[in-house]
Task: structure prediction
Amino acid sequence: MSSRELVVLGTASQVPTRHRNHNGYFLRWDSAGFLFDPGEGTQRQMLHAGVAAHDIDRLCVTHFHGDHSLGLAGVIQRINLDQVPHPVTAHYPASGQHFFERLRYSTAYRESVDIAQVPCEGDGGVLAETPSYRLEARRLSHPVESYGYRVVEPDGRRMLVGKLAEFGIKGPDVGLLQREGVVGDVTLEQVSEARRGQRFAFVMDTRLCDGVRELAEGCDLLVIESTFLDEDLRLAEDHGHLTAGQAARVAADAGVRHLVLTHFSQRYTDPGEFERQARAAGYEGELTVARDLDRIPLPKRG
Result:
């Protein structure tokens, strides 16, 4: 049985607070694990959340501001200390290669795990493809080069029990039909319907741009920064960020099923205001104003 959930490790923006750690988000996607934007304190938050170094298959960094990347040093060293037995791949903006190297080798340690590097370049594109997912990146708009990420499950087909019975398909023949596409005179299309794959997107520091909209399109779960409230729109634009209302309008236009707002400025003390502004902007789907250590399952397929 598949297990797909987001584990929120930190929700602060540039300055952590008593209640919000710096960024950190872990996506469990069946047997694969993605760690996004590990800021300071991520290793300890992983301990609180029950996320182990062995769970990590990919490190995905949107950009090299400290609140999104300073935890890399500790996480990479922990991967090596625990001698993670499977391949680990790091994704990050190619222009920040020197920052990645500095963080990876910031102190002395025994390197026991080879971490592959597949940086993001240009407008982004497909970074990896497996039977379970396709990992994509899109260029965002921030004062330093920044990318958002998208995990897409391949489309499949859902078997229709009534149709199987009607055509007398049962037992091993069901599996054979799924593998071969035909059993006797019965085709897979006659006893099944198209099933769209699940989609997850991770959008951090950015102004509104095409990349934001492309990443969000049709997502089952969208994690997106809403650093500022709408009354501080000018500040958001000046610093390369989104407001709660902007993030919500993107989600509404893209048909997002579950919206997760995060990356909050320390200037605000009422998290409920982010939800109020998101609803006022027209988003009607499931909405979470993220808190540290939240666990958010991907919505069940429709």
